[in-house]
Amino acid sequence: xxxxxxxxxxxxxAIETCGLTKKYGERTVVDAxxxxxxxxxxxxxxxxxxxxxxxxxxxxxxxxxxDGGSARIAGYDTARETTExxxxxxxxGQFHAVDSRLTGLENLTMFGRMNGLPARQARTxxxxxxERFDLGAAADRLARDYSGGMRRRLDxxxxxxxxxxxxxxDEPTTALDxxxxxxxxxxxxxxVAEGTTVLLTTQYLDEADRxxxxxxxxxxxxxxxxxxxxxxxASIGGGLDLVTDPRRRRDIDIVLAGxxxxxxxxxxxxxxxxxxxxxxxxxxxxxxIPLLPILRALEDAGIEVHDIxxxxxxxxxxxxxxxxxxxxxxx
Length: 331
Known about the structure:
The chain has 11 helices and 14 strands.
């Protein structure tokens, strides 16, 4: 890209918070959150709906003032040095930021001009970005005529017109098809390879597994656990998938709970016979899963197993083991 990542100083942490807190009335939505993200890395912020992810991002992006604690971006305090922070960040929120009445080229040129680029340079740079991220053929089309995936890519590239030190991506691939999601993953990887730090919130656990160097899981505004994806998946042991009659789900849950198994698929039991071959998944705290004793216990309970197999734990297992398979209500 034509613009380099803004200088943040040697050895300066890209994102650092200490006791970051936000309240709305009596309700604490972000509760003493500590984060530490090194430059040029992807950090995923995960959690159920209402866990405080977006509020945390909005505070880091200077859109909300915290009620407690502190945050620094590229060495600058978000409360006291807001102007310097804004020079070093880009934000892609959950809603489209581009103007649907403008073409892709006009949108990126406008963002370039807003960030201080001369008119000719802004237009040239906009065209280069569109070509680089496979939007060149649509440069002169109105953004309202773009597909959902194309508009989302345009959003992300717009945030990178003047390349930030830190890019916040708040659920950037929600409701996109797999091909569009993969295209956005490619964009993120290119940005990071060039030195940008990314803070990603997502509902797709496989997305964090593919992109993130480190992960923090929130629940009700508090940090439950933080670490690399490998550290987190190793901490909960292994997983077990079985194909059986999901109408016996409650009985199966009880049997496997006796061996330390926690359900990582949602649902309270199927009623339709067409669902009889639906796979069920469970996580276990240890690396060794007692497969034969489990099979005997299921047989003793009159539960027929059609297929069963061990697998390594995933971030889905970590997430659901820590937060539970049910949808949470924010406190």
